[in-house]
Design a protein that fits this description.
21 strands; globular; four-stranded antiparallel sheet
Length: 434
């Protein structure tokens, strides 16, 4: 129902995404009208012309023109994208409508691993040494000139899909051919499902014909969730990734916050992420950064102009909540308020530790059933166990796969206790495949 005088936000949600419910609830909490834009027409669009709209999310300029036409009847005060590709579309719409957002150029460079690496290296941000190659290059010739260990990765596939470590020339050749097959399978214009919620992205032709080879950076990996306001990066959470991500594949599992890094280490990570965002030209909205830390300090692995994806955002709450007179604020509410230029009640994360496990794919096969879910939910500190895979669904391990079968959430007094609860709950789950 349209409410005169109520601000309206345009939310760019690809058809295959888990993000809808969290953002709809955030809009309800904020008290704004929400228009959901997708690339496919909804059967309910005619009945709700202000709340649903179809945009060409594969073409930012065209989507911006379509959004401008829509805004003639339903004025928009903000726009938000939820993944790497819709971040570019959101930037184009924001520029066309004069809304708060990043430049298209900044959003584009953040989306492409090679372009991002090039800008960051030029700005002096610590990144791995890297080279881009075409998929038609001869891997045997390339293998002789590569430093080992190295990591091969597609330019735009998400959730570590197609990311492979190679320690020898023989492993390099095998990894190169495997990444090439993954890119061919993804195909130009095919949908890529992401770990943090199965968001989708189109793979442009150049990206589908290229891959990146970079030095493997040893050390622990961390994820920083932040919000840019007029170019200043505010750290919302710093996650530990306690499971070593040393390869040969890089399926993520546990995120726990607050980080157990010493204070000086946390500051160094935040400074590195802020320098990276500035180097890319990003100024507004959510960012999700992946970094490694070793004796040389933090290294920027990736920085995306979007929030942490899918179900994982449920691990974050902000404000006083039950401990005071206020209520918890979700990450999605912060993002919506910022996009609309509204006051944000708090950017301070809750006091208790929290975490999420992206349940590892148990093996290749068709899911028959998942046992032990109730037992997992009864583990102390565990708040929820969400199984997103359904019976009959094919489970595909990394590096070809990119979709987790579910998520486990926990909260407690310390990061150690939360991590232990997540592991204990996971041990109670049994996946039956056929």
């Amino acid at each position: 129902m349209l409410r005169p005088g109520t601000p309206r936000l345009l939310l760019l949600l690809p058809t295959a995404t888990y993000r809808t419910a969290a953002f709809v609830e955030a809009a309800r909490q904020v008290g704004v009208d929400l228009t959901v834009a997708s690339e496919r027409p909804s059967t309910f669009q005619d009945a709700n012309p202000g709340g649903l709209v179809t945009l060409d999310l594969s073409d930012p300029d065209r989507a911006a023109a379509e959004a401008l036409a829509f805004a003639q009847e339903h004025p928009l005060q903000g726009v938000v994208g939820v993944d790497d590709d819709t971040a570019v579309v959101a930037a184009a719409i924001a520029g066309t409508l004069g809304l708060r957002g990043n430049s298209v150029a900044a959003a584009r460079v953040a989306r492409d691993k090679h372009e991002q690496r090039t800008l960051l290296a030029a700005a002096g941000v610590p990144v791995p040494r890297f080279t881009r190659y075409g998929v038609d290059d001869d891997p045997r010739r390339l293998a002789a000139g590569v430093s080992y260990p190295c990591v091969l990765k597609p330019l735009r596939l998400a959730a570590s899909r197609g990311v492979i470590r190679a320690d020898t020339p023989e492993a390099f050749v095998a990894a190169f051919e495997r990444v090439k097959r993954i890119l061919e399978d993804a195909g130009s214009g095919m949908r890529d499902a992401r770990c943090v919620g199965a968001d989708a992205s189109r793979i442009p032709d150049l990206a589908s014909r290229s891959l990146l080879v970079e030095d493997f950076i040893p050390g622990r990996e961390y994820a920083l969730e932040g919000l840019l306001v007029a170019g200043e990066l505010h750290t919302l959470a710093l996650f530990d990734k306690p499971d070593p991500l040393d390869g040969p594949y890089f399926e993520e599992t546990i995120y726990v916050t607050p980080s157990r890094l010493p204070a000086d280490g946390r500051r160094a990570v935040a400074v590195c992420a802020a320098r990276a965002a500035a180097a890319l030209g990003l100024r507004e909205g959510p960012v999700h950064a992946e970094l490694r830390v070793n004796a040389s300090g933090p290294w920027l692995i990736e920085l995306a102009a979007r929030p942490i994806g899918g179900r994982c955002s449920a691990a974050l709450r902000f404000g006083t909540g039950a401990s005071g007179s206020g209520t918890w604020v979700s990450l999605e509410e912060i993002i919506l308020r910022h996009a609309l230029g509204m006051q944000v009640p708090s950017l301070e994360r809750e006091a208790p530790a929290s975490g999420v496990m992206m349940i590892p794919v148990p093996g290749a096969g068709v899911l028959r059933e998942v046992r032990g879910v109730d037992a997992a939910r009864r583990v102390p500190l565990v708040e929820e166990v969400v199984i997103t895979a359904h019976p009959g669904q094919e489970l595909v391990p990394w590096p070809e796969g990119a979709r987790y079968p579910g998520f486990i959430f926990a909260r407690g007094g310390t990061p150690d206790a939360v991590e232990a609860a997540l592991r204990a709950a996971h041990q109670r789950l049994q996946f039956a495949l056929m």
